[in-house]
Amino acid sequence: MQIVTEEQSARLITHEIAYEAVRAALIAAIQPQTASFPVVLGHGSDPADTFTVKSGAGPDIAGLKVGSYWPGNAARGWPRHNSTVLLIDQDSGRIGAVIEAGTVNAYRTAAADAVATDALARRDASVLAVFGTGHQAGYEVAALARIRKLRDILAVGRSEPARDAFIAGLAERGIAARAAAAEEACRAADIIVTATTARAALFDAAWVRPGTHVSSMGSDATGKQELPAQLLSRARLFCDLPEQSRRIGEFQHAAPDASLTAIGAVLAGEAPGRRDDDEITVFDSSGLALQDLYVARALLALLG
């Protein structure tokens, strides 16, 4: 059994590696020989400490990812989010590799946003509004800055000190951003990304301009919500996996008869993406194990 530590995986991962692996995983997810199994939602002895188990299989890969969120870790100076990927040896059924993937998971999540945004956002999109100023939001901005030339980045957060620290952190990466109120950010944006743990809409649907692309990255459990339901009724809806998005993703808040398109079908040329410059497109990422498995395999290949 091969074991890859957090330090090793964090050193190896890049936005480029994550983008290519996640793109391939999203296309694989729509293939008939691929399976994504129901997500297990659990918690620790303290119900505030939560974890998810996501698993999947394809013709040449199978395994699972355990993702945990321990909010009390912040007071200890530890990451609140952690992930571990297990690849199963399909010949023996034993665990072939264990990859500690806390940092990798942040890159993987942001890569799903970048892949979908690259496929759906207008080619001239240049103003980004980001809701959320936590751990994940910085990875989202960095990943999106690779696929569009962003001339303005507007950061929206509930805590002014956290927002200012977030903007300062981006500046250290060479990315300029500025603070904005929710309405100002939405009305100016070509791309909106939400990376929060919200359980109610973060903005008003009327603030979103025609032609905007929106990515919801934080809704991955029953009851979570980042986008207004009214927006979903006037937009074209895309996601990583329709049945999962309906169950635990943002589209649990969409109308029962709303049409959902797997982004993998767009990437494979089997379904249309953006059809004109006035459409509003929404991508919901509830997270697929296949994405984690493909990224893990890419990292193992680098180790030889």
Automatic annotation (TrEMBL):
<dbReference type="Pfam" id="PF02423">
    <property type="entry name" value="OCD_Mu_crystall"/>
</dbReference>
<dbReference type="InterPro" id="IPR036291">
    <property type="entry name" value="NAD(P)-bd_dom_sf"/>
</dbReference>
<dbReference type="GO" id="GO:0005737">
    <property type="term" value="C:cytoplasm"/>
</dbReference>
<dbReference type="InterPro" id="IPR023401">
    <property type="entry name" value="ODC_N"/>
</dbReference>
<protein>
    <submittedName>
        <fullName>Ornithine cyclodeaminase family protein</fullName>
    </submittedName>
</protein>
<comment type="similarity">
    <text>Belongs to the ornithine cyclodeaminase/mu-crystallin family.</text>
</comment>
<dbReference type="InterPro" id="IPR003462">
    <property type="entry name" value="ODC_Mu_crystall"/>
</dbReference>
